[in-house]
Predict the 3D structure of the following.
Amino acid sequence: MAKRYPNPCRAKLHRNYTIPEAARALEVHKNTVSRWIKDHGLEAVTDRRPFLVRGDALRAFLTAKRAEHRVTCPPGHLYCLRCRAPREPAGGLVEYRPLSPTHGNLGASCAVCDTWMHRAIRLTDLPVFERLGEVLLPEA
């Protein structure tokens, strides 16, 4: 039942939630919502029971929580799931697989852990990887 990353859009902006209602809407445990209030700074009306959480405050809290964990890859890097960090391709060798006339996927081996990495890319952004090394294109 519990969601690891609750969707902020499930919290309605113009609604007030009790802790169990917020937990049901986000599909998390009610203790999780209580912990967000006590330890993580989620704003709530706590002067009397039942504690209420405003929908707009809940959505803003979840959006900020997601943003702090987001990692962006700099140009010429792919995200390695095993290392959990952006990495350059091993040996500068990248494989491009077209999905449409304008978009495709890049694949490369991680220089640190030798795991295969992927990245969706526009065809117009391919020269960034060509400057770093060799890009293998599929044969027609």
